[in-house]
Amino acid sequence: MATTRTLDGAPGAATLYPRAVAGSYALPLLRRVPLVGPKGSRELPDLSFALQDVALDRGHVADYARVCGFDLRDALPPTYLHILAFPLAMRLMTDSSFPFGVLGLVHVENRIEHVRPVGTGETPSFTVRAEDLRDHPRGRQFDVVAVAEVDGERVWEGRSTYLRRGGGSGDGGERRERERDEPSAPPAAEAIWKVPADIGRRYGAVSGDRNPIHLHNLSAKAFGMPRAIAHGMWLKAHTLAALQPELPDAFTTDVRFKLPVLLPATVAFSSAPSAGGRTFEAHDAKKGKPHLSGSFTAL
Q1: How many angstroms separate the Cα of 291 from the Cα of each of 109, 169, 222, 257?
Q2: Which stretch of DSSP H or E encloses residue 4?
Q3: pTM of the entire structure?
Q4: Tens-place pLDDT, residues 50-109
Q5: Which of 12, 18, 196, 240 lies deepest, with the highest CB count within 10 Å?
């Protein structure tokens, strides 16, 4: 039977990340064991977390807009509700019933359905759940689904797809996955972005997503990265900010996260018209390696 736990307030990073570390395996530098592994049941819990009538802080919205590159408007940036739902997602994934440790999960895709603009004076309510645990050539995948409502009306929905590596299906799909990530001749850049070394800390401060792989080179190396990497959702937000004048009031946007952006970085951005919207890409400006591909389509 489905269970919904309604929280009195958003969980804080000070409690969430210690829970995440406790629920994952030890750091690779301390023990030579996989970072991810089974934490209990192999099934997703039939569990949701909810948060009601969240008051929006206009100053915080402005800070987020500046870090991501959005123009300041009366309506929220289309990715802003993701960071309000993120603490609920973390609370779900650090629950004792959740089958995987958080640290080491890879955010591979994100889909947002922006049903209508949400004003800074509105008070959205959130529900977050996990669903659709499935096999993947590199391991197992599942979706974390966040729904935002205002006065009972669904105004926004985000779906984040996570990969837990290990024990893949072995059906040849892994090779095809690698081929999709191989560098190809990128399209001509319409913008070149100099991504600073501190963008992980800046985005982490405004979003609450303080995963160690984004904050400092030393902490990133402790979790197997060569140096700190940019948040995938910062990169998605930054690409949508570049397209902000063209975004309709109601649209869906899908992105696939590819190779990480090692900080600092120089990233090339390109886009092209498509049926009902645009496609877009971000890739390494020097080597052409892909970081992100995506699109938006009017509803």
Answers
A1: 12, 25, 22, 6
A2: strand 3-7
A3: 0.88
A4: 999 999 999 999 999 999 999 999 999 999 999 999 999 999 999 999 999 888 799 999
A5: 240
Domain with residue 188: its CATH number is: 3.10.129.10
CA-to-CA dists, residue 97 to 10, 203, 239, angstroms: 20, 29, 35
Residues 103/34, Cβ–Cβ less than 8 Å: no
Nearest to 104 by CA among 88, 93, 113, 117: 93
**Paired tokens of 118:** 């949400």
Q: What value does the CA radius of gyration of the chain take, rounded to a whole number of Å?
A: 19
Question: pLDDT digits over 27-46, tens only?
Answer: 443 333 333 444 445 799 99
- For residue 254, the surrounding DSSP H or E stretch is strand 251-257
CA angle 182, 184, 78 (to 5 degrees): 85
**What residues make up the domain containing 155?**
3-298
Q: Is 159 exposed, middle or buried (0-12, 13-18, 19+ CB in 10 A)?
A: middle
